[in-house]
Amino acid sequence: MREELDFRTEARNLADAAAIDVGHGRAVEVPAAVSEITTRRVLVMARLRGVPVAAAGPLIDERGLDRQAMAGDLLGYVLHQVLHTRLFHADPHPGNVLVLDDGRLALLDFGSVGRLDALTQAALVEVLLALERNDAAGLTDALLTVVRRPDDLDAQGLERALGAFMARHLGGASAPSAEMLVDLVRVVAQHGLAVPAEVAAVFRSLTTLEGTLALLVPGYDVVGAARSRATAQFASQLGAESLPRLARHELGEVLPMLRRLPRRLDRIASALEQERFTANVRLFADARDRRFVAKLVEEVLLAFVGAVAGVMAVVLLATTNGPTVTENVTFLQLVGYHLLVISAVILLRGIFRASRRGD
Asked: Does 264 have pLDDT greater than 60?
């Protein structure tokens, strides 16, 4: 919240966004901030003449503008930000999109932005590729690269759930809605995985953008266009011109590890030779094992307490000495009856829980 209220941050975001080269003639304009007179509480920008997209219908029809091309330009700009740059507009609602007098589009309000690292960008491309190929296993692998994997994750259950998710949203003849991305987050959350805030912001941005594009072209296929864009980007990375750059990038990441590898192998060999090589194994390191042992100990203790209470009840019921409560019942026998009830409840509870586990 403080970052959004500091207009100097938005001015920097505007400068970063204005520097984005989308490769098709700046079809989407971003207002330039006047940094010299911008302060924490005052943001000064270049004036853009236009109307919000929600009220631009008459202007578009009057000038005969290509609605499909305009929608493609806006979506292409946002996808370029998400897949290629480190900054993207997180709230492209209709009030933040203008149709300028010259027919181009403009995007306002860069106070709400998201930033992605290279790993998250690559994972998003893999997610879109998996959706394009209808590949549940690939979608599972892509998601697990950007979320924290719990110890008790049911990977096969997650893959089956994602397969059902794709069958539900991608199996029909109609174009999928961007709401499927919200459903994807819900499916992942049901399996104990937390989607990073940056990835959730991308999905929310595309969902919001779908509503904006619907004002230009009703029923515009945002998800289909995003999947096609990711496929094109993946194909370009495998092109003859990109392969040397990709090879250099991968080699740069692997080279530090290769440099350390001989030294590590030498340490292991020396430890083996001097009989100093040890392996540390921690019992019950897995939370599931700890829970199992804790439940087992709990049930054994309860069974022991129930058995002891039953034996004590039998002994006390057989005792005829002691103060009397009624003419035929002594105080010790009364205590024995109570212990007998407690023993029966504990033992019946154990039998019931054991039968439930068996089912």
From this structure: yes
Kindly state the helix (H) or strand (E) to which residue 98 belongs, with its residue range.
strand 97-100
Distance, in Å, from the CA atom of 128 to the CA atom of 223, rounded to the nearest integer, reads 9
State both tokens at 6: 């500091």
CA separation for the pair 341, 347 (Å, rounded): 10
Q: What do you get for the CA distance between the two ends of the chain, in Å?
A: 51
- 29: closest CA among 79, 103, 95, 87? 103
Rounded CA separation 288/308 (Å): 30
Question: What six digits make up the tokens of 289?
Answer: 């094992």
Tokens of 285: 């390191």
**Among 92, 77, 72, 107, CA closest to 201:** 92
The total number of residues written for the chain in this structure: 359
Report whether 336 contacts 315 (CB < 8 A): yes
Q: What is the pLDDT of residues 269-315, one digit of tens each?
A: 888 888 777 777 776 666 777 788 888 888 888 889 888 988 998 88
Sign (positive/negative) of CA torsion 318, 323, 328, 334? negative
36 and 136 Cβ atoms separated by less than 8 Å: no
